[in-house]
Amino acid sequence: MENIAVVGVGQTKIERNKLGDTFADMVYEATKKALDDAGMTMDDIDNVITTSNDFWDGRTISTMAVNDACGGGLAKNMSAVEGDGTFSAFYGMARILSGVYDTTLVVSHVKGSESENVLITNAIFDPLYMRPIGLDSINSSALQMRRYMTKYGITEEQCAKVSVKNHKNALKNPYAQIAMDISVDDVLNSRVISDPLKLYDCSPVSDAAAAVILAGGDKAKKAKKPVWVKGVSYTADAYFLGDRDLADASALDKAALEAYEMAGIEDPLNEIDVAEVYDAFSYMELMWYEGLGFCPPGGGGKLIDKGITEMDGDLPVNPSGGLLSGHPVTPGGMIRLIEAVLQVRGDAGEHQVDGVKTALAHGINGACGQSHCVWIVGR
Amino acid sequence: MGKKRTAIVATGQTNHRSSRLDVNGIELINEAVDRCLEDGELTIDDIDAVVIGNMDHFEGINYVDMWSIDGTGGFMKPVFKLTTGGTTGSTVGQAGYYLTASGMFDKVLAIGWEKNSESDTTAAITTAFDPIWDRLVFAGAIGGLAVEAMLYLHTYGATQEDAARVAVRDRKHACNNPYAQLRKEITVEDVMNSPMLSDPIKLLDVCPRTDGACAVVYATEEYAEKICPKPAWFHAGAVKHPYNLLGDTDLVGLRSMELAAKEVYQKAGIKEPLKEIDVMELYLPYSYAGLSWIEAMDLCKPGGAPKLIADGKTDMDGELPINPSGGVIATNCIGATALLRMAEAAIQIMGKGGARQVPDVKTAVATGFGGCFWSDMTVLRSTKP
């Protein structure tokens, strides 16, 4: 693959309710930070991709709300991806690889505080068969967690360990929304949200925006702090939950394999130095370990038991605190990419992992991780 | 231009009606996808990636890209969704280009669709606008268009009959298109006598609401000519999406179209568009657009469009036939509409237009329109870029 680099990143602090900010305010902040980070101005940007979701924004063509906040307007060719920011970053990269553009700014935003999560995620499901029974992102994930625990003998304690780890990691991330030092018992004793999911197994409602600048060719070579894209792939699984075994992430298996192949990675656990994965719920992180090939199917529990994914483990996962510590829906995966870039650059501050050469970022789309996008970035 | 030369090699569209009660959304999408694959003698296994677009508030389905997997054939493939309002079809079409030109995929399926019969389109469009400043005064699509139409009449001294001729032309062309929704000729008098919707726009000046879907396959040079003897090569694309507040939009002349046209003409080396372009498929949701916007595309001087239309220059046998398919005034399945324009432009280059075929098309232009007076533009050619 031709050399493409992430040359600038920016994110707002993730908060429960950014009462003082509109969508545009948040996107402007992230854009400005990414431009400053890259040492660029809007004049250096060829084209812009926005990322949002009309349901979450309560607004048809939600990109319209942020068109000038991200410097788009008449001057730039723009487009708008709906879904997770990792997918829009992929499209931004494809536009550079096409040879038509040198630099793409990709932005994403969401205000969970102005949304009704239950109604919005109920609308993901089939209107005839699944919506009337009240499925939403939380109770469908509870079904998935139950299936995962049943099939592989994963315990609630093992899932809780993810929550403990990530919330603790978040203490060192100034952008995180919820950072706390809790115990496994705290997680197990927190109130049940949708059995077996308990409060601390779940990511919070969040507001945030994020931005990345991708560049190719000379623009990438001349960048101040380029982090190179080594491999990237995305794959979608079946829609109906009953058409999948919810305990497995076949789409992630495929996306990860393709991304590894592109990056020349054969042994992900040893060759990847840090991973930022989409831990919307604690059990998901364990499932994604398996899909990402860090361990065999059903091995996620053992991986966390052995401490391999702790900050001082062989492969720290979510040193930023992950989504459990702040879950802005469409920027969720993009922030994982940003964190992976910061880790490679050595710019991750107090949550920096030592000696990171290769980092993984992961985004998901749809219910119960129907679709996955995997990025490998490195020096 | 892009590193990889890329062409549209296959197209498929549904039979369009105001209400397709016989299919659900996924089946509607599948009808277009099946026909597209059949057109290219392809199977879904040949497709490397899928990109889809529509407006989720219209049908009330969140994450349409995930929901429609069974209809798109996206199972275990890379899939994402684009949504830019009325321009969705053209941004999806351009994404098909970028994804193949990038070298990441050899063959990409681009899909646009809409089942308007299951939606309240005006209510959904109204939510596009700023909730504090614009939403209360900008009711759906037609209000803003009426303001634009009135300004055009006022600025250039054109008449309502001048606009009506655009609808008459497109509705006549639609009779040649077996897929068009409204296939009945109308006269200027019919337009003038139809019910007033929003002065000066009358019922027959505007597009219908349609259920429909469209799909195209893009392929890279290595595959294009093997799939299609006369592929429609992508030469230039531009999208111009300005907007924040309605008051910031200049409604005399479509500024976004002027800039898009300037960009694609420059990229494609077009100096005299009226002479050099063989056919145009334009996203004209109402008749007045057929006057003002072709001026923005530099087919004639500002104010010159009524004469160009009346002289028959844009008829099927004219110098530059516009909308041989019947265009949007005959069929408007919003998320598919702009992709239909690209598909129809490609069909003209491929020579597959049947009764709506313009002879010997070498250069075809397609546009998209949406958002708050946004424009997308694409130049396709029979020759490689």
TrEMBL record, chain A:
<feature type="domain" description="Thiolase N-terminal">
    <location>
        <begin position="5"/>
        <end position="215"/>
    </location>
</feature>
<dbReference type="InterPro" id="IPR055140">
    <property type="entry name" value="Thiolase_C_2"/>
</dbReference>
<dbReference type="InterPro" id="IPR020616">
    <property type="entry name" value="Thiolase_N"/>
</dbReference>
<dbReference type="GO" id="GO:0016747">
    <property type="term" value="F:acyltransferase activity, transferring groups other than amino-acyl groups"/>
</dbReference>
<dbReference type="InterPro" id="IPR016039">
    <property type="entry name" value="Thiolase-like"/>
</dbReference>
<dbReference type="InterPro" id="IPR002155">
    <property type="entry name" value="Thiolase"/>
</dbReference>
<dbReference type="Pfam" id="PF00108">
    <property type="entry name" value="Thiolase_N"/>
</dbReference>
<dbReference type="Pfam" id="PF22691">
    <property type="entry name" value="Thiolase_C_1"/>
</dbReference>
<feature type="domain" description="Thiolase C-terminal">
    <location>
        <begin position="244"/>
        <end position="379"/>
    </location>
</feature>
<protein>
    <submittedName>
        <fullName>Thiolase family protein</fullName>
    </submittedName>
</protein>
From TrEMBL, chain B:
<dbReference type="InterPro" id="IPR002155">
    <property type="entry name" value="Thiolase"/>
</dbReference>
<dbReference type="InterPro" id="IPR055140">
    <property type="entry name" value="Thiolase_C_2"/>
</dbReference>
<protein>
    <submittedName>
        <fullName>Thiolase family protein</fullName>
    </submittedName>
</protein>
<dbReference type="Pfam" id="PF22691">
    <property type="entry name" value="Thiolase_C_1"/>
</dbReference>
<dbReference type="InterPro" id="IPR020616">
    <property type="entry name" value="Thiolase_N"/>
</dbReference>
<feature type="domain" description="Thiolase N-terminal">
    <location>
        <begin position="7"/>
        <end position="221"/>
    </location>
</feature>
<dbReference type="GO" id="GO:0016747">
    <property type="term" value="F:acyltransferase activity, transferring groups other than amino-acyl groups"/>
</dbReference>
<dbReference type="Pfam" id="PF00108">
    <property type="entry name" value="Thiolase_N"/>
</dbReference>
<feature type="domain" description="Thiolase C-terminal">
    <location>
        <begin position="245"/>
        <end position="380"/>
    </location>
</feature>
<dbReference type="InterPro" id="IPR016039">
    <property type="entry name" value="Thiolase-like"/>
</dbReference>
